[in-house]
Amino acid sequence: MRSEVVFFEVSALGALLLLARHALRTFGKKPGLVLFGYLLVMGFVRELIVIGLSSATDKPHPFTPDPAMGKVAGVNLAVVAGWVFTTYASFVLARMIQKRSLPRTNVFLTLALTALVTTAISYAVEASGTRLSLWVWDRHSSYLSWLPFDWTLNAFDGWAATSLLIMLPYCIIKYRMFSKKAWVNVGSAIALFLVYALSDLTVQWFGPHSPRMKMTVVYIGAALLLGFFAPKGMLGTSSEELGLREEATAA
Amino acid sequence: MPLDPVQAADTPRMRRPVLDALIRDNWEVLAALGIMIAVLGSLDLGWLRSPLLLLSAVPLLFLMTCAVAGLTWRLVLLWLLSCVALAALLGDWVYAGLGYPAVGGALLLGIQRMRGPSRAQ
After folding, report:
1. Do A250 and B72 touch (CB under 8 A)?
2. Distance from B42 to chain A by nearest Cα, in Å?
3. Which of A141, A174, A171 is nearest to A155 (CA)?
4. Tens of pLDDT, residues A23-67
5. Residue among B19, B26, B29, B61 with most chain A CBs within 10 A, to mutate
6. Using a CB-CB distance cutoff of 8 angstroms, which residues of chain A are in contact with residue B70?
7. Max Cα separation, chain B?
8. Are A83 and A42 a contacting pair, CB within 8 Å?
9. Could you tell me the end-to-end alpha-carbon distance of chain A, in angstroms, rounded to an integer?
């Protein structure tokens, strides 16, 4: 295995263990394990969906990770670990920003900020990772012209959408955001997930070019507005459990 | 005259303990992101020999600064101006794009200001 791949993987594992420690310490042992397990499963499922869609639509997989990084059922484990790392770190950093500077906002803003933080992590990782051929983008629409280092539009959209869509169902179900009845929240989470996943079928409204990217904008825009203006009834126990009632200390 | 809770939390005396607690409660996440930046920096310098790639961490550094020091108009302005200055220095305006999270931060602060201080959640 190439030395840079080993260096990257060992360091990433160390960083991931730190995040696991944080989850167990701050969320509690059982909820922390549940959250980390959920992130692992969703990262795995996300990759399976991408592989499945690629073969179903007869299009190549959008990116190819270095084969030296281990695989299970065709899914690259380093990529799954990457989703866990990115989603968790983004969510916590988003919550820190919010608690520090944006008083009287709610979990929807945490989710919108999570997507923003994810783009920043993605950018740093993609700029180096692709040059080292840790993975190669096989299919992408274009590069973002307003940033240096050739960041693909697929990566910009894909990373942000993934962390948002992983944390959104978790928050809805865990904090019973839409109802006290668990099944209503599970149903809402599945519905929101499916609406996004099936957005390729909305070409007649969104046009033929990347309807999923446009759906990402709709989701993030909605989360942003709800983050400031959502009624209490939509928030469940999220504000108490995430400590978002505390006043900000800056701004 | 006593300060209301919002004003009180914003005094330097109150800010310090809250900030300390925020960092103490989340040091693993900040450390993990620090490791990530250090590893990518080592790869950029050691394997790729491309110091300019270090700049790809600028957007993340802005957000980490917001988490620790707070998102303020002053920080947003300073960061944007620094990115513009960097772009002018490097002779390529595309580097000004590195300030994009600061634009997002300005949007959030703008909405927050429009909403006003009295609206209860």
Report:
1. yes
2. 10
3. A141
4. 999 999 999 999 999 999 999 998 888 777 777 666 666 677 777
5. B29
6. 100-101, 248-251
7. 61
8. yes
9. 48
Closest CA to A84 of A36, A142, A128, A21: A36
Those of residues 49-108 in B touching chain A at CB distance below 8 A are 50, 52-53, 55-57, 59-60, 62-64, 66-72, 92, 94-95, 97-98, 100-101, 104, 108
For residue A209, give the 3-state DSSP assignment: coil
Give residue B119's pLDDT band: very low, low, confident or very high (50, 70, 90): very low
Question: What values do phi and psi take at B9, rounded to 5?
Answer: -70, -20
pLDDT, tens digit (0-9, with 9 covering 90-100), for A111-152: 999 999 999 999 999 999 888 888 877 766 688 889 999 888
Closest chain B residue to A13 measured between Cα atoms? Answer: B32
C-alpha dihedral (B9, B15, B17, B21), degrees to nearest 10? 90
Residue B116's pLDDT band (boundaries 50, 70, 90)? Answer: confident
For the cut 70, the answer to whether the pLDDT of residue B56 exceeds it is yes
- Please check the confidence at residue B120 and state whether its pLDDT lies above 60: no
Do the Cβ atoms of A250 and B10 come within 8 Å? yes
B104 → chain A, closest CA residue: A116
Contact assessment for residue B81 and residue B114, using Cβ atoms and an 8 Å cutoff: no
